[in-house]
């Protein structure tokens, strides 16, 4: 086996799996020596990226290994994007070697000291960036693949990256689009302004199905399948997980897909039966539109429709945020987490749990912002920044789940039994908000009727008990009504101060 400390001009292992036959040259034999690979020349249906670049890896032995790794990944079905990420990690290692005086002339010289130096280099140049962890993870995969497949025999056993070498992952920030923004994006008048029928349908699929953009643009015309009851599903290839996925769709989206198929077939571009086949034909043939071209069109459309966030600033919209939005919407609708995981085709519950955390954060924010009153109509003040804020919110969430009421929430610890036989409107642990004003008004009508009937029958005790409830209801409704009427004025004042 040839080691890579001194690589000859032509390495035996750089040849393609199939040899030359006469004057015929296989695509891999033609592309492998180049510093830039074109995916379509290799027969790979590239999506958002179509080229892999090696020109910045200046060390011949390292470049040859990077190429072999990229070729292996592509032939196992991974995307061009995956090969690009891996190549960039090797490129970063090459740049690190350029910046150091360490005597690294081949794989035999990559020991733990070199690895630690590379980790320090990455921290200096990309700390805090998403690429930081990605570069480490990709280079670790590079080392493991070389060792596992025996591509080199002299890689030291200390050339390893451990779990503790990765930087601490920062808390994921919410990426779901707000309903204020989504209302503008889903407005039929705005959707009609998107000039390309390709892009309009892609937008609908992203919003309603939560697919990744790379999987969406690669859909084929046979993407609709049905169950035994005739219900329609969108069938797609999940390139990240390398498996087929299905997601239920409604009749409107099914009709839109049928119309898209008719449109594509009318253009004559039916060679590969692609749903989003573009009209341009290059030297490698016609393929589907790229994810990057859709992303650019999405940004232009958002600007042209003047889509803004709640503060009036231009909304930041990207294809993947539609996926986060669908996940958050489903969780907020109390769809079981396992069902959400299957719809989004997550490989683990951990990713889906992120949407559940976002849902809880949203609910908590609204709860803390809402004016809360107790059974006597007095305002209840809860400190969201107090030392027991997290514990108090956990108690509220538990109370909502185990002691739900039609007109508010119970603040009694679940370990206790309620001592009040009457309705919660006479309970000191009762808390309610303006969300329940309709129920309070309806309840008041019923209480007035009960009091009138009790007085007519001479049932003074029953009348007195319900009179207390009526008094509390009147105070609650008055307090919450004042809050509801004051809210628009506050919002107007905030808008005035903001100059809107």
From TrEMBL:
Keyword annotations from UniProtKB, A to Z: DNA recombination, DNA-binding
Residue ranges constituting the Tyr recombinase domain according to the UniProt record: 172-368
Biased composition (Basic and acidic residues): 491-500
Domain of life: Bacteria
UniProt-listed SUPFAM superfamilies: DNA breaking-rejoining enzymes (SSF56349)
Region spans: Disordered: 1-20, 481-500
Signal peptide: none
UniProt record similarity statement: Belongs to the 'phage' integrase family.
Record's protein name: Tyrosine-type recombinase/integrase
Organism name: Arthrobacter vasquezii
């Amino acid at each position: 086996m040839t080691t890579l400390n001194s690589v000859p001009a032509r390495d035996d292992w750089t040849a393609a799996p199939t040899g030359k036959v006469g004057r015929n040259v296989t695509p891999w034999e033609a592309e492998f020596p180049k510093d830039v690979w074109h995916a379509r020349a290799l027969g790979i249906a590239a999506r958002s990226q179509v080229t892999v670049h090696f020109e910045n890896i200046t060390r011949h032995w390292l470049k040859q290994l990077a190429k072999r790794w990229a070729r292996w990944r592509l032939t196992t079905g991974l995307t061009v994007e995956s090969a690009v990420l891996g190549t960039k990690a090797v490129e970063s290692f090459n740049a690190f070697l350029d910046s150091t005086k360490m005597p690294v002339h081949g794989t035999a010289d990559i020991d733990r000291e070199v690895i630690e130096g590379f980790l320090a280099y990455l921290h200096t140049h990309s700390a805090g960036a998403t690429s930081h962890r990605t570069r480490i993870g990709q280079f670790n995969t590079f080392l493991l693949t070389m060792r596992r497949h025996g591509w080199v025999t002299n890689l030291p056993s200390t050339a390893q990256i451990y779990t503790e070498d990765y930087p601490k992952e920062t808390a994921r920030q919410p990426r779901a689009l707000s309903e204020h923004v989504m209302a503008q994006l889903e407005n039929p008048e705005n959707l009609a302004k998107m000039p390309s029928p390709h892009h309009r349908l892609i937008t609908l699929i992203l919003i309603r199905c939560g697919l990744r953009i790379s999987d969406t643009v690669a859909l084929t015309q046979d993407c609709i399948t049905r169950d035994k009851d005739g219900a329609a599903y969108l069938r797609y290839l999940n390139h990240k997980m390398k498996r087929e996925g299905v997601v239920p769709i409604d009749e409107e989206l099914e009709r839109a897909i049928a119309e898209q198929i008719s449109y594509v077939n009318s253009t004559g571009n039916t060679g590969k039966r692609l749903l989003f086949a573009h009209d341009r034909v290059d030297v490698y043939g016609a393929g589907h539109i790229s994810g990057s071209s859709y992303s650019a069109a999405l940004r232009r459309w958002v600007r042209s429709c003047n889509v803004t966030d709640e503060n009036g600033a231009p909304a930041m919209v990207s294809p993947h945020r539609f996926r986060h939005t669908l996940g958050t919407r489903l969780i907020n609708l109390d769809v079981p987490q396992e069902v959400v995981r299957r719809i989004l085709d997550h490989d683990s519950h951990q990713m889906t749990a992120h949407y559940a955390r976002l849902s809880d954060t949203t609910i908590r924010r609204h709860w803390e912002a809402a004016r809360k009153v107790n059974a006597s109509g007095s305002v209840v003040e809860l400190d969201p920044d107090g030392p027991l804020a997290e514990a108090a919110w956990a108690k509220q969430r538990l109370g909502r789940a185990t002691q739900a009421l039609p007109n508010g929430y119970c603040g009694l610890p679940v370990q206790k039994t309620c001592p009040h036989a009457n309705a919660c409107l006479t309970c000191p642990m009762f808390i309610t908000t303006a969300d329940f004003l309709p129920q309070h008004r309806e309840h008041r009508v019923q209480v007035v009727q009960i009091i009138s009937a009790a007085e007519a029958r001479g049932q003074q005790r029953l009348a007195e008990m319900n009179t207390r409830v009526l008094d509390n209801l009147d105070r609650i409704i008055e307090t919450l009504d004042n809050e509801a009427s004051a809210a628009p004025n506050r919002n107007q004042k905030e808008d005035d101060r903001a100059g809107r």
